[in-house]
Amino acid sequence: MSRQVSSLLAIAVVCVTLAPAPALAAAPKKAPVDCSKVKCIALTFDDGPGQYAGTLLDTLKKYNAKATFFLEGQYVKSRPAFVKRMVAEGHELGNHSYTHPDFTKKEIWDIRAEVKKTQDEVKKAAGVEPKLMRPPYGLTNLPISDVATEFGMPIILWTAGSEDWASKDVEKIKKQTMAVAKQDSIILMHDWVKQTVEAMPAIVQSLQKKGYHLVTVSDVIKGEELKPGDAFPVPQGWSNQ
Ligand SMILES: [Zn+2]
Question: Which residue positions does the secretion signal occupy (predicted)?
Answer without folding.
Answer: 1-25
